[in-house]
Batch of 2 targets.
Target 1
Amino acid sequence: MSKFRVLIVGGGAREHALTLLVSKSRLEPRIFVVSSNINPGILRLCKSSGGKYLRGKPTNPEDVLKAAKEISPDLIIIGPEEPLFSRVTDVLRNDGFVVFGPSSRTSLIEKDKGFARNLMWKYKIPGRLRYKTFTDPEEAAEYAKASGDSVVKPARQAGGRGVRVFGETAEHLSRIAREAAATYTKRLAEMIMRKYKDIESSIIVEERVEGVEYTLMTVTDGNTLISLPVVEDHPHLYPWDLGPETGGMGSISGPSFVLPFITEEEFKESTKIVKMTIKSLLNELKEKYVGAISGQMMLTSFWGPTLIEYYARFGDPEIGNLLFMIKSDFLELLDSAARGKLSSYKLEINDNIYVVNKAIAPEGYPLEREKAKGHPISVNEGEIRKLGCEILYGGVNLVDGELLTTGSRALEIVCSSEKGFEDASALAEKAINYVSTYDGYRLIHRWDIGAHSHIKIRLRKARLARLAYTRRRAKGLLMVYDWIPGKGLVFFDYSSSKSLSS
Amino acid sequence: MGILLTFFFETDQDSGKYSYYGIMGLRHRGYRASYAVLNGNGIEIGRINPWSEKWSLPKGYAVIAGIEPMASLGLASGNTKKVAVVSEGLCDPERVAKILASFKKIDEASSEVISKESMDSCAFVGLTSDGEFIAYRGRNGIRPLSLGGYGFESVYFATETAPITLMGGEYRHDLRPGEVVYGSRTFLESYVLEGGKRTTSLFEYIYLARPDSYVDGINVYLFRKTMGAKVARRHNSTHIDVVVGVPETALPYALGYAEERNVPLELAFVSTVGRMRTAIAPLSQEERLMALSLKLNPVPNVFEGKSIAIVDDSVVTGLTLKTVVHKLRRTQAVKEVHVIVSSPKIINACPYGVNNIDPNTLIARVLDDEKIKRALDVDDLIWLSLDDALEYLRSFGIDPCRRCMSS
């Protein structure tokens, strides 16, 4: 039996994907996991690798440290973001463990959206958006009302929830949109202040941008940064990109490092944005960022690659796509990063493969989660595997031999094809037929992820954004001008190092 | 005709404020609209004139509306819920609402409703007091229905796409013939019945829809420009000095015609009553003539001694065209008047209720071309060939309904 021991913190779909990726390593590691729920997929991999599934709260440093001391792992991988914020990484490193995951300070890049935006302006990192942060709910509401066409977010990472877009796609709607923005902003600010005490600002109001979204996941040791293949997430709950915002109802990637609607050049530029961020973090905090950092990007008409927000971790569902895309040893990748030796690592991926990942959620996610909880799920793993697809368990808990939903996305089905997204998507649809609830409760997923019509829309949108930003660049414009009759020519200078003068 | 559904996922959002603009985007289709609004108290219904000065909708997170009289509202109560339906085409909204209200689950209710053959020539939208919505396009596809969304906030359905964009939304999908979409703030499902035919109303493209819309995937403006060009290709031997379009619908046709013939397009009339659609306004014959006269005040001294091509979108009763020609003849001493109609002859009332014209008022049904020319006092009268329109739409997979244009 292998001597290499790896401890993974967290028990969701992302950690299930991490476990699967790591289990394929030539090091044949024994896999240990610490989590508060029992994820059946992870449990099986722990057992088959000769490891163990430990119960504990991933966000509690004592729980995790206790597990680490018991196991003495060669590497600890932190999956979700909350353990980073609650100093789990710091405590483990202090005790001499080798950890893949940023410290609590460097993970501010995700936790504190104002911090991340300020860093981008201070160090003039391309792809930055205008923003303003607030503590006082009234003041935030007033600003949201005055600014218009904005995105209102919790200033603290709040499980991806609470983001609302108040688009003024037409001027005649501006009064309605602004009033709605003000009401919502005030309510959100009050809620955030009640719920989180570990951050100063409650609200961030950003300029709204339009374009094609994609996620760039990278791995870094603080010096070297390796970009993984670009993945596109699908945040809307319903097909045709309709419905409430979710943590992601599925994702597509392939056929190489880039998707059909993103160019090689845009991939490189996106990587440069993340690289500059890592460097600026070192400058700002005098501390190296070690772990995964993912950029939620958008191809916009102003910047081209634009940063919407950072995750101090791998994206979920995005990481699921890597199951079929990564050829080289993933455990070695994470281990090299944790030991500061990433420069010698060579990433290899499977070219010409199309990967489609579809999430399945119980009805009620995300707006009425109580309704979505506690439904027993049946998964015919054998039939799904026959189709060559992988199953990732997420928002489920194994209780007395029954698999119960927790109210979030229950599982993900990942399928691949060399023929194209449509084919991979069709496989996933077949596989999803083998998932049901014992109580007949409705499960939802998106049939359109990977559909041709869908890619066509992305291609068109990306082309429009590309025409606009290349034109802007050719003219060397980093200013936005506006003529307001009676007030004169006003402008906003993106080359300055401050977002808003106030 | 013309129907609308807006559904916001957050119940504190006021759909009525957005739907206001959606109804404005449909009001070129008629002068009364009935609506139902869903809010915490259940379903409220009402009726408004979207052309009147001040009107608004009650507060609520979901709205359905339809332009009367061809679209209408029905309400029904079941054991556990109330249902409101707005339908158009050949179906009774109250009957649809009754069936929907008699089932507990909307998936069972919808399959019961849409499986009926009588629903094939119908389109409807509905809301239930449980917070669910439903939209259906009948299997023969006569009535189009498009789907869009506004960010993470809402889902929109409308007969054409301009109301969707006016409500801030993005157009995403055209319901296929026999396609039903239903859902709530926690789920959305759709499926398509077999045996659908895309026989979308040709009259939508010719006349009803706004030129800034797509109807069943067809860009209405480009359709009209192309038809103008097509009719010009068949009418290229006569000398023309200048082209004039009859306001408002005919302007894209006139542009296409003028461009193809390389003849200048002139504005001939200025309206004093805005963009009023006199053909469908609820007016007496006398009032209609008065309105037309106000809508068509001629620009002076542009056409003297010239041969003019007057391009009109369609000729139904011929009243508008008669007024136009008369005004030009009287005020400008034009040399020749050639009338180009960018639609085939309309000779029947619509069996699906898309229009409700009295067949005896249809000029092309009652008179032959020679008599029409004499009645209108014109030198030439050219109609768009039905084949030209069919060829174009068929290239997009639509075999349009043309029952009002064929005997």
Target 2
Amino acid sequence: MAALTADDLAAIASRIHDQNASWIRVGMSTCGIAAGAERVYAALEDELQRQGAGVQLKKCGCLGMCAAEPLVEVNIAGMPRVIYCRVDEACARDIVRGHVCGGKLLQDYIIDMQSEDAS
Amino acid sequence: MIIATINGIPVHVAEGTTILEAARQVQVKIPTLCHHPDLPPTAACGICIVKVQGSNKMLRACCTPIEEGMNILTHDPEIVEVRRTVLELILSNHPNDCLKCGRNQSCELQNLAAAFGIREELFPKFISGIPKDDSTNAFVIDPDKCIHCGRCIEICQELQQVWALSFLGRGFSSRFAPAAGMRLVESPCVECGQCSSHCPTGAIFELDETVKVWQKLQDPDNYCVVQIAPSVRVAIGEAFGMPPGTNMTGKLYTVLRRLGFKAVFDTSFAADVTVME
Amino acid sequence: MITKTVLIKDTTPGSTSGTKEFFDVFTAALRESKLADEIRLVRAADIGVYNHGIVLKILPDNITYANVQHHDIKRIIGVTLKHGNPIKDLLYQPRAYQLRLVLKNCGRIDPESIDDYIAHDGYRALSAALQAGPDTVIREITASGLRGRGGGGFPTGLKWSMTRSTPGNEKYMICNADEGDPGAYMDRSVLEGDPHAVIEGMLIAGFAIGASQGYFYIRAEYPLAIERVQKAIDQAHAYGLVGERIFGSDFSMDLEIRLGAGAFVCGEETALIASIEGKRGTPSPRPPYPSVKGLWGKPTCINNVETLANVPSIIRNGSAWFSRIGTENSKGTKVFAVTGKVRNSGLIEVPMGTTLRDIVFEIGGGTASGKRFKAVQTGGPSGGVIPEHLLDTPVDYDNLQKLGSIMGSGGMIVMDEDDCMVDIAKFYLKFCVDESCGKCAPCRIGGYQMLNLLENISRGNATLEDLERLRLIAKAMQKASLCGLGQTAANPVLSTLRYFEDEYREHILNRRCPSKKCTALLQFIIDRSRCKKCGLCARSCPEKAITGDKEHGYTIDTARCINCGMCFETCKFGAVERN
């Protein structure tokens, strides 16, 4: 394709920005993968399909809480955006059934950190 | 032109002059070990360190270009202590077999140890014990005596473009060796002799067969003849302190006869023919 | 209809059932207030607050309460959950916050999607830089006060302007991703989590110095980082953001990856250049600096991954915004890999000037074991240990140097009272001895001799003169080594000697290791009163040094014992003692 112009950046950004979409992100850096993120991703993918949930499943890098990997961040419309830690395959399926489809947050898996973004 | 001072003595030198060269111009002696005037500095040994006023770092005089206004200090208790420790460390990694060494009395490490008045060893000795390589008829390589100055490698790779020698391994087990660790006879070595003539210690030296020659000469069952290369008549003069270029042909013939050779052949005629061709 | 969510976590040290109990009490209280259908209670695994009793976080109000008591529940329901008002005396005021600048996108965007990066302001800084021109870019970076994040802390703007001002048509930009400190992986995470930010930083730097070719020097042990950077370069290429006439301007630059073969010394810039050129990775004397004579003899600028990842934000938000963060001489944030005996090992990003105590205890959560904190090592094998009484030091380049350590690339290893300082010094020195290239004598032989001395100390075969020998060699290495590896290799030894000389003396004079780590100095015996005669120890002993039977009990034959510690590990009743 032809070289991008500065205006194209804005066009791409607005195409991607869809704040209301529901999504699940799995931390897939070396730390996450070493802790089993690939299996968790596969379980989420499978369970989402089984339940027919229209939720976007995405990969992302490392949030920093490496000791608590695999981390799965869930953003479902009308629910608080939370991060689950030390997720295994069973927990991944519970996330889809309970949180995504059932509107319930999972007990004993949520992790939070004290941070803010610069800029 | 750059103006600076060394131990308070003003120096005026061309840009790009190293601190070591500048110091020599004003007769200040900075001890060196790995440095060789024929070669670019490898900066390996750390003996030539000096201080620059206003910095608590020590710089290598061999490879640091002198800068305008620098106030250089070449000797103080701290500098000498560091130099001495480095020398002691090098000696702790060097066998003490000077008496049996091919470089005895022409060894730069021996001279430096003498200059520092080293009389005992401060650190325990660790010698790697890598076997000698005497696979060629030209040199003996004794890696244990190597001080890692890198001169042989620099000259073999960069000046002669032969690449027969290189460093292998790393850290304390690094060593210089014929490329890829093969024996010298299997390496691309052309036996030019530049490595041995630049080696500061006995790590590379010419294979010495003097004892064998004596034995043959003294054996009554042997009829010994000798043939000399054209250059020897002049080179031997230098070894005996004559001015360079002095022709020693006559004296050489006589000496060889007195040593016991029954006949002396000279290659000079054949050499002349070669030149005429 | 659920309106609020309350996360609950008992952060009292050692508490195991507190969260559950409080959860049950709170649930009952909600039912009583007839709010059970409106408020969702969730037990959290970790709430990011430590040692503050029961902690509650109320969403979506984002109110955090700490040290909550059972009698506070009524107030919380009445004031906050019903009316959304905060209760001042319960509010948690964090002493330390993470501030995510470099890690902003890590874990938030898909690192394999350039579109996702662009949607998060990606490549806008590049576009702005190309319009502003190289001089403005260098001025901004200089004004921001950004310093090299690889460890040296050299001002980035100055490095760029030096490379720019060296005459030459051909210049190179190199990204140093040869991260090799034990326990440090900040650069890996940035490359894996946000590769485009580094690429954008590379392009801006290349534009500023006048380079047309850039190299990523990534160690081969980072396969995922290599894969993602390559993918990112390809995507950027397809968008015309790498290659000819970027954004339609006159600026063209190509990027390539070069793999490092895993030599720590290749993080040193002259050795790194030699490695890219295909030579043996050994340092060469500086000057000439790479900015004058670098890769292939051309002017070259080498920046660390994290340094480059800072660049787009600075260009986007301006130098004034950046220089507001941090301390007088150290601007911005720093990413640390906090590992070792810490509860939350992982990556954190904090503003420069955050104290070590806040990093270790507030963010890191203290020691994982709950045992007493002893020291923290910063700067990896080139740094030093910092003991407890200096933990209130704000972290910046100059402060850490004053303490005998360095900022380094950002590894931070927490040690508790089980760690022996002689052992720690030995560990780091061993690393440098293994990684020394062997070129210069002080580093090659000095490191080896020091390691041998430390080994003797940890075996109880040393004298007090050996401490002087250690100091003597350390000084020679610092002053006479050719590159940073050798010059700093003695730092862990010197700093442990500085703060924990007692421990060294204890090893030497009393042949005792206070942390019970140096096994050669330990003696294992079985305490008869606690022994249950199970025989597990005897079966675990590799030397068959434990004799006895289930009737009479067991004893250790100290003459045959090799001090491996297997019996100590195996015994479930604490009957094996080590002294």
